[in-house]
Amino acid sequence: xxxxxxxxxxxxxxxxxxxxxxxxxxxxxxxxxxxxxxxxxxxxxxxxxxxxxxxxxxxxxxxxxxxxxxxxxxxxxxxxxxxxxxxxxxxxxxxxxxxxxxxxxxxxxxxxxxxxxxxxxxxxxxx
Length: 127
Known about the structure:
It is a single chain. It is built from no helices and 11 strands. The strands form 2 sheets. Strands 2, 4, 5, 6, 9, 10 and 11 form a 7-stranded mixed beta sheet that branches. The N and C termini lie far apart (40 Å). 0% of the residues lie in helices and 51% in strands. By secondary structure, it is mainly β.
């Protein structure tokens, strides 16, 4: 059974930093696209960042320059380092994994491109 487990969320002051982790088990994702999404109350789930199997990275405009996505294939884990956090970053953050090996990037920013999802970790930024 495939599981994605996020960790690292919490309460942080505006301007602070957090590092989210997403550990996968049940299969290896070293050649799969991985991503982070977030969902604020009353809003739709939105793209935050993705890292292709090749290592190429994609970011939403709202977090570009403040966030870094990375992966450690040996640990089957993907990370999201966020800095200069703002109140509008408050949301539940979900990690996702594409089931397809060597997947394309045309839909990498879309929720529907990912078959596996974690349960989410809450990030709350206080102003």
